[in-house]
UniProtKB/TrEMBL annotation:
GO terms for cellular component: plasma membrane. It comes from Deinococcus psychrotolerans. This is MFS transporter. SUPFAM superfamilies: MFS general substrate transporter (SSF103473). One of its GO terms (molecular function) is transmembrane transporter activity.
Length: 389
């Protein structure tokens, strides 16, 4: 098992470190959640199709998520401190400036560059939490870190509600949180023999591949719904306010569901939570798509679906870490980045389907992918409890 040296610094307690990177997760994912609710406004500003707007999410997913395993390897080799602290700063400076882009090509480039900040942050932040957490509460600590991100997703639509012209002021928040994180987190640098690229690729095999496939399908369903929601509600006569409220409730519910799911997985096991969380979601998701904010049950149902579909997210991260305990950053990046990234890359297909049919139809097709996700979850072995270096 690999070992590492940690530079002794002030405020190095596990709770302080986890809190610092969780705040980083919150603001980073808040920036990342800006694009979706601004879809209709960006479409009007640049005069492009729904497919072109969803392509922005695919580009962001490519640089922020698909590249995460590679960035996790870089983090293990070079140290994680700067990546955990300055990744959200980079993301924020990019995405809060999208309103200043004069043409769509520049917007695509800015979104691509901004995504790298998020890609650097996630594997480093998850590894800090994994190494800081007590083994008996690893699922809970991972879920709290995940909840920071989902809370940020709730905050992102609030940022977006000010419109493109005023977004840039929110970039200052990331600068402050980045400085705090850099002051608190230790500089972790592994001292074990460095593995070859082939050896790192060897991590992605067996149950890790099955777990990843399950997460991709689950992520595609969730991302597809969120991407289509603004267009669905606008077509039904609602505005940015209802879109922002709905996305915020969905994200807050995701945070709550993740905490509950993570804690339950500490007590009954990881795989039972992965199975039940996804299976329970499908019928509720279908009802939600045909509901709207004018119905009394819409917001409570949004909360219930958000909590259910995302209760398995932190559990999947911990499961991957326990499958590969010597490389928690890389394992984390496979679940946090590579799975979401591949789903995000494919989301432009949902945009094409929405242009050819309707956003409602596209959202329904997306959630049907929860069915094979359940099948893959039932094939997973329960991981052994592991100590992390």
């Amino acid at each position: 098992m690999s070992t590492g040296t940690v530079t002794v610094r002030t405020f190095q307690g596990g709770a302080a470190i986890a809190t610092a990177v969780t705040l980083g997760h919150l603001i980073n994912d808040a920036y990342g959640a800006i694009l979706t609710p601004l879809g209709p406004e960006l479409q009007t500003k640049f005069g492009v199709s729904i497919a072109a707007i969803t392509l922005l999410s695919s580009i962001f997913s490519l640089t922020s998520s698909v590249l995460q395993p590679l960035l996790g390897v870089i983090g293990e080799r070079l140290g994680s401190r700067a990546m955990a602290a300055f990744g959200p700063v980079f993301t924020g400076l990019g995405l809060t400036l999208i309103g200043f882009m004069p043409w769509f090509g520049m917007l695509v480039l800015l979104v691509a560059v901004a995504g790298l900040g998020s890609g650097f942050f996630h594997p480093a932040g998850a590894a800090y939490v994994a190494r800081s957490s007590p083994q008996a509460k690893r699922g809970l600590w991972a879920s709290l870190f995940s909840a920071g991100g989902t809370a940020g997703m709730a905050l992102g639509p609030v940022f977006a509600s000010v419109g493109l012209a005023n977004l840039h002021w929110f970039g200052l928040i990331g600068l402050v949180i980045g400085a705090v994180s850099y002051a608190i987190t230790p500089d972790y640098r592994p001292t074990a023999k460095r593995l070859t690229v082939k050896a790192y690729l060897g991590i992605f095999k067996g149950p890790m591949v099955t777990l990843w496939g399950m997460a991709v399908l689950r992520s595609f369903a969730s991302i597809g719904y969120n991407a289509m929601l603004p267009f669905i509600l606008v077509a039904r006569g609602y505005g940015l306010r209802e879109v922002a409220i709905t996305l915020a409730i969905f994200a807050v519910a995701s945070a709550v569901g993740g905490i509950v799911g993570g804690r339950i997985s500490d007590q009954i096991g990881r795989v039972p939570v992965l199975k039940s969380a996804i299976l329970a979601t499908l019928p509720l998701f279908a009802i939600l798509i045909y509901s709207n904010p004018g119905q009394w049950w819409f917001y409570p149902l949004t909360f219930l679906v958000g909590a259910a579909v995302n209760s398995s997210v932190p559990v999947g991260i911990v499961t991957a870490q326990e499958y590969a305990p010597e490389h928690v950053a890389v394992a984390s990046s496979i679940m946090m980045g590579f799975s979401w990234g591949v789903a995000g890359l494919l989301i432009f297909l949902v945009g094409f389907l929405a242009d050819a049919t309707t956003p409602t139809t596209a959202a329904l097709v997306s959630i049907l992918l929860l069915l094979p996700s359940v099948y893959l979850a039932y094939k997973l072995p329960e991981p052994p409890k592991q100590s992390f270096a």
